[in-house]
Amino acid sequence: MIDMYDVTDPRTLECEFCHELVRGRVMFEMHGGSLMVCETCLEVLRASRAHPYSRTMDKFCMQACGYYVNRKTARRT
C-alpha cells in the first residue's frame, strides 16, 4: 500500500504507536505531533482521522504531543 519512497526508515525498529518490531516505518503527523509508525498503524491512524474523539486519536495525541489535544480547534495536517 505504501510506495517505496514513503518509507522514511527502512530498518527493523519499534513502531512508536503499537510498540511492535517492524521493518520499515513512516512518519505520521497530525495535531502538531508526529510518530514513526508501521504500515498497519498508518492505515488505522488514517482511518481514525474522521473520528477525532476515538481512543486511537487519544492514544496518538498522548504519545505524539505528550498531552491531550483539543481536537475541535486543532488543524489537521
Major sheet: arrangement of strands: 1-2-3
Number of strands: 3
Structural class: alpha+beta
- Give the number of domains: 1
Radius of gyration: 12 Å
Mean pLDDT: 80
Shape type: globular
The helix tally amounts to 2
Q: Proportion of β residues? A: 25-35%
Largest sheet, strands/sense/barrel: 3 strands, antiparallel
Report the helical percentage: 25-40%
Can you characterise this structure?
This protein is of the alpha+beta class. It has one domain. Helix content is 27%, strand content 27%. It has 2 helices and 3 strands; from the N terminus they run βββαα. It has helices at 39-48, 55-65; strands at residues 9-14, 21-30, 33-37. It has a 3-stranded antiparallel beta sheet with strand order 1-2-3. The protein is globular and about 35 Å long. The mean pLDDT is 80.
